[in-house]
Design brief:
heterotrimer; A mainly alpha; B mainly alpha; C alpha/beta; A: mainly alpha; MetI-like fold; two-stranded antiparallel sheet; 75% helix; globular; C: alpha/beta; 6-stranded mixed sheet; 4-stranded antiparallel sheet
């Protein structure tokens, strides 16, 4: 019996690691970034200029990085939402069983393509295409990044939306059809509204994934820290800034601390999106 | 235009969207295979890079990525499986369990670059492992842990409850029951889910950027405290930092292809295991 | 409750319970059940679904312990020993009290490994010894002739009735004194049901058998004593013959004549 108790304790401690890890992540991000809050103070982050290395005056304003992330994410959602929701409707309601069995692993396949490979594809194929299409000086733009991010978000959003659609009780569909509604009317007037909370949660999780994505945007968005809302302009996201600059920064410097602050902001945003999405899923009984 | 006609058009449009997505994925894979295959040969896989990667092979990057994978598996697999066993077999519905679940969901949503920052802060600097295989593996392990837990728990829960009851009723202890009548039947599911998660780790760049990856290091690692090159990082460097990026395009494509083959190979292997074992245990 | 004892004077009561109350969380499932179950006889529990008969059965081998949030009050003794006493050994209890479930649940292992599972868990690893136990158990459960040539094949290949007899063999292999059966034939076809009933008849002199059933004909056919449960209460417990011919309680009579249930 002592062995039984020991094993239980072992499993319990393993499971507790997750809690421990979350705490550690928050603690270490705060630990590395904390001194910045005292001097120069958090107000320094609220600035339009990000000039972390300068002989004259350094600026650690993350606003242009935040808008960069927001622009790329927003654009990408403009593509992701219709594509994924229609894709999910197709897989869940229209595709034949054989088609489903082929399409689902294919979507899974997309999820496992490394982001650096997608970034590479974007760099050598997509960017030149965008450049020629719009007659730009460079194809490295918010739009190019958004298109790649769409590819990264699609598997998440399609799969979760499909789960949501599948979780709509069969009886709703039967009732609608019994009233003489066509299949299509049933889909758009009964099934989608019923699945909406799950689809919204799926989109939120997709946004979380897109905001946190690093390599693809680092490679194709042009990385210029300028505040802009133009889709065809080069931008720089929060994630790309950390990835590009952390390698050359001296540990413990203000620049280093500012990069950790960006990490904290990212962590907070994705954490909130995640928690809200889970709440929605649990509330509407769509948690698997 | 009749209602029927307009419905047919709508169906057609939805199908078009779906197959557009499929086409794009297909084209990306096709493009990488088409351009990568010509430059891919035995020498490329087994030689050291020369002239900052302008010539030669990618052996150190392959070895680096494989050693990172091994490290990740060694840490994340036991931890993940044990966590899943706790959640599926022992956990009661209480606040503590809810906290564990919230933590797992949180971990699953943490951006990969934030894992990189965390790994840098904890493993590289605080624990003084330096930029090393050890620090990189631990960082990747943290990242894949939630995936392994979730898929393992699903596999454990798929084992019919009757086996547990029957085993307990015969006088087996809880642990004996889990070891002999739950784990063996769920192992295939656990392995499948874990490989899928770990395969994704193999392709990740952001977490290793700050914790292990070497820009250019044409030799093999001697210990877990060594830096290594890694396939994804190598591709990133060749594509964006190389002074003659256009000239080495074939090498970039070949590197991308090797990385893709590794990751998709792992996923494919997982799917084959799943099909094989599905036939064995049918309940 | 039982004014005149239905048991012969020399009856040895193997399971005795006194004022047992049982709770699933805040919901009380059993109320003040006091009952003495005789050894080496077949006792049937009958009653409508949800009356608590299965819950009561699972108290005897502490299977309810596996459900979180359950709570037991009162005294449960097997051979005089308080099985819910602190420090009481559940593993030892379950070796003495075997159980057969409603849905046959052979492990997805070979027939041999299924029957040998219990003995192995309890420390028997000698192949020769195991083979003897397996053969003896399978003979007792009337399955030996059908499976002796394919002991190494997967048990899931057996028919439903054979699977259930395998589960009985598996329970017998541990060497229990008491056999708890939770609607063992409810998922089987009539022919397989008869075989299980015949088997119970053969085992009745060696084991104390407690069987839960929703099939009143079955209770009448195979049991010596019958207890009728209703909404968590033990309504009547008597010799089976008495219960089915001259029930004392109106509720029992209504149930066995089919007015509710």
């Amino acid at each position: 019996m002592w062995k039984d108790k020991a094993m239980r304790l072992l499993m319990l401690s393993a499971a507790s690691t997750s809690i421990f890890l979350v705490a550690l992540i928050f603690i270490f991000l705060m630990k590395e970034s904390a001194p910045f809050a005292l001097k120069p103070g958090l107000g320094a982050l609220i600035d339009r200029q990000w000039i972390p290395v300068s002989f004259v005056q350094e600026h650690f304003g993350i606003l242009s990085l935040v808008t960069g992330s927001a622009l790329v994410t927003g654009l990408s959602m403009l593509f992701t939402i219709p594509l994924s929701v229609l894709g999910a409707i197709y897989i869940a309601e229209i595709a034949s069983p054989v088609e489903r069995e082929i399409l689902k692993p294919f979507i899974e396949l997309l999820a496992s393509i490394p982001s650096v490979v997608l970034g590479f594809f974007g760099l050598v194929v997509l960017a030149p295409l965008i450049k020629n299409l719009f007659g730009l000086g460079t194809g490295l733009s918010a739009l190019t990044g958004a298109m790649l991010l769409t590819l990264m978000a699609i598997p998440t959003v399609i799969t979760l939306s499909e789960d949501a659609i599948m979780s709509v009780p069969r009886a709703y569909k039967d009732a609608s059809q019994a009233l003489g509604a066509s299949d299509l009317q049933t889909i758009f007037q009964v099934i989608i509204p019923a699945a909406l909370p799950g689809i919204i949660a799926a989109i939120m999780l997709g946004v979380g994934r897109v905001i946190g994505e690093t390599m693809a945007v680092l490679m194709v968005t042009g990385n210029s820290a300028i505040m802009t809302w133009s889709p065809l302009a080069p931008v720089r996201t929060m994630t790309a800034t950390i990835a590009a600059e952390m390698g050359e920064v001296s540990f413990g410097s203000l620049h280093y601390q500012a990069l950790f602050w960006i990490g904290l902001v990212l962590l907070a945003v994705t954490f909130i999106l995640n928690v809200i999405a889970q709440r929605v899923l649990v509330r509407y009984g769509m948690m698997k | 235009m009749s209602r029927r006609r307009s419905e047919q058009i709508t169906y057609f449009l939805i199908r078009l969207v779906m197959y557009f997505i499929v086409l794009v994925i297909g084209y990306i894979l096709f493009d990488i295979v088409r351009h990568g295959l010509p430059a891919l040969n035995w020498a490329f896989l087994t030689e050291y890079p020369r002239k900052s990667g302008s010539e030669g092979g990618i052996l150190p990057a392959i070895v680096g990525t494989l050693s990172l994978l091994a490290g990740t598996i060694l840490v994340a697999l036991p931890l993940g499986i044990c966590s899943a066993i706790y959640l599926s077999e022992y956990a009661e519905q209480n606040r503590f369990t809810a906290m564990i679940r919230l933590a797992i969901i949180t971990l699953a949503g943490v951006p990969s670059i934030v894992y990189g920052l965390f790994g840098l802060g904890l493993f590289v600097l605080f624990l003084n492992f330096g930029t090393s295989i050890l620090a990189g593996s631990l960082t990747l392990a943290c990242m894949v842990l939630p995936t392994i837990i979730v898929s393992s728990e699903e596999a454990l829960r798929a084992v019919p409850h009757g086996y547990r009851d029957a085993s307990l009723a015969l006088g087996a202890t809880k642990w004996e029951t889990i070891r002999t009548n739950v784990l063996p039947y769920s192992l295939s599911g656990i392995i499948t889910g874990s490989i899928l998660g770990i395969g994704r780790a193999a392709g990740e760049t952001a977490p290793i950027l700050l914790t292990v990856a070497a820009f250019y290091l044409p030799r093999l690692p001697n210990s877990i405290f060594d830096q290594v090159m890694a396939l994804p990082y190598h591709l990133y460097i060749l594509a964006t930092q190389h002074p003659e990026a256009d000239k080495v395009l074939p090498l970039q494509y070949a590197t991308a292809l090797v990385l893709l083959l590794l990751v998709l190979g792992l996923s494919l292997g997982a799917i084959i295991i799943r099909i094989h074992f599905r036939k064995k245990y049918r309940w | 409750m039982v004014e005149t004892s239905p048991f012969p004077a020399d009856t040895e009561h193997v399971i005795t319970t006194s004022k047992v109350n049982f709770f699933y969380g805040a919901t009380q499932a059993l109320f003040d059940i006091t009952m003495d179950i005789p050894g080496r006889r077949v006792t049937a529990f009958i009653g409508p679904s949800g009356c608590g008969k299965s819950t009561f059965l699972r108290i005897f081998n502490r299977m309810n312990d596996t459900i979180s949030g359950t709570r037991l009050e009162g005294d449960v003794r097997i051979n005089g020993e308080d099985i819910y006493e602190n420090g009481s050994n559940v593993v030892r209890l379950r070796r003495k009290v075997g159980m057969v479930f409603q849905k046959s649940n052979p492990f997805p292992k070979s027939i041999f490994d299924n029957v040998a599972y219990g003995p192995r868990i309890h420390g028997t690893h000698d192949r020769q010894q195991l083979a003897e136990i397996v053969e003896k158990s399978l003979i007792r459960s009337a399955l030996w002739d059908e499976v002796k040539d394919r002991l190494e094949t997967n048990a899931l290949g057996l028919s439903g009735g054979q699977q259930q007899r395998l589960c009985i063999a598996r329970a017998l292999a541990v060497g229990p004194d008491i056999l708890l059966m939770d609607e063992p034939a409810s998922a089987l076809d009539p022919k397989s049901t008869i075989r299980i009933e015949d088997l119970i008849g053969e085992l009745r002199n060696e084991y104390t058998i407690v069987i839960v059933t929703h099939n009143m004909q079955q209770a009448a056919r195979i049991s010596d004593y019958t207890a009728f449960f209703y909404e968590g209460h033990l309504v009547e417990f008597n010799a089976t013959k008495k219960i089915f011919t001259k029930p004392r309680e109106k509720q029992t009579e209504d149930y066995i004549t089919g007015r509710f249930g």
